[in-house]
Amino acid sequence: MSGCEHVSCGSKEKVWLPYVFRGRERGLRPHTYCVKCGLVKRSSGDRPRDIGYYINVVGTLATEQRVTQVQIRLIVQALERAGIDDSYGLDRYQQERLFIDVVMRHTKVSEEIIRKYL
Ligand SMILES: [Zn+2]
Fold first, then answer.
1. What secondary structure letter does DSSP report for 10?
2. Residues 54-112: pLDDT tens digits?
3. Could you identify which of 14, 35, 90, 111 might form a hypothetical disulfide with 30, taking C-beta atoms 3.0 to 4.6 angstroms apart as the criterion?
């Protein structure tokens, strides 16, 4: 998904899909999608953050929660692979969910603690 320039479909081509806000479905709404890769455009009002924000959080976790340099590198790679910086498709809620999952996969830091840094 990363690397696509994203070209939005026309307004008549929109697809009706569940509208999700903060992880909860709120009925169906027309969604724009990318005609090149098929990714559906983010529909939530929560603006996504750029990847630098999440990398800074990883850095803070490293100094305060005993996360090693090797773990940091694995986390940053996993975030990039998962396309956390693709603001076309991800809203902030989805980014945070992804970030927490990745950090928990590579460290012993709990979700509760990770959330304090977001
Ligand atoms: Zn695309």
1. P
2. 999 999 999 999 899 999 999 999 999 999 988 888 888 889 999 999 999 999 999 99
3. 14
Task: Compute the distance from residue 30 Cα to the ligand 1 centre, in Å.
Answer: 18
**Residues near ligand 1 ion, CB 5 Å cutoff:** 4, 6, 34, 36-37
With 0.90 as the threshold, say if the pTM is over it: no
Helix (H) or strand (E) holding 27: strand 24-31
| Interval between CA 74 and ligand 1 midpoint (Å) | 26
Q: How far, in Å, CA of 32 to CA of 40, rounded?
A: 6
Three-state secondary-structure class, residue 40? strand
Per DSSP, the three-state class of 30 is strand
How far apart are the CA of 35 and the centre of ligand 1, in A?
A: 7
57/84 Cα distance (integer angstroms): 14
